[in-house]
Write a structure and sequence with these properties.
3 helices; alpha+beta; 10-stranded antiparallel β-sheet
Length: 160
């Protein structure tokens, strides 16, 4: 009697071949770098992400949070975009402060990494920033903590 029939052998073979793919622990930051984008576009606090075959990227954080690149940036608890090499297009869930206004980030593009620049499309304008601002994933603070910190810096503790 043969220990495994052909069907069982096939299942064992497929399991062993695809096991590394299922359990690879690639972080969202590694994924960004592999797609020509800087690791620091998304905060350290990313809980998980999904990437569909058509390039739709969904990034999940525990809660909405604020951080700072050149200006303050707000991440919703879910950020979505279409990921292709060198770009995040159709971004949803990310806003950037410009002159006291919060504007949605529409697209993020690195056309030429050698230029050292990254382009943020915020709808009413395109903003070029240094790629060096995005080398390391930033720490992202819950929305209320950063707002209170800014109030204290500006001497507005009593304003709520």
């Amino acid at each position: 009697m043969e220990f495994f029939d052909n069907q069982a052998k096939a299942r064992v073979f497929l399991t062993l071949c695809f096991l590394p793919l299922c359990f690879s622990s690639s972080s969202i930051h590694d994924l960004l770098v592999s797609r020509g984008l800087p690791a620091g576009l998304l905060p350290r606090e990313v809980k998980s992400y999904t990437l569909s075959e058509n390039g739709t990227l969904e990034v999940f954080l525990d809660a909405p949070c604020l951080t700072k690149f050149e200006n303050r940036v707000f991440f919703d608890s879910v950020v979505r975009a279409n990921l292709s090499y060198g770009s995040l297009m159709g971004v949803v869930g990310l806003t950037q402060e410009e002159l006291f206004l919060w504007l949605p980030v529409k697209d993020i593009i690195v056309d030429d990494p050698k230029s050292g620049l990254i382009l943020f499309d915020i709808g009413v304008a395109h903003k070029q920033l240094s790629l060096s601002l995005f080398e390391d994933p930033p720490n992202c603070k819950p929305q209320g903590i950063l707002r209170n910190h800014v109030r204290k810096e500006k001497g507005l503790e009593g304003v709520r």
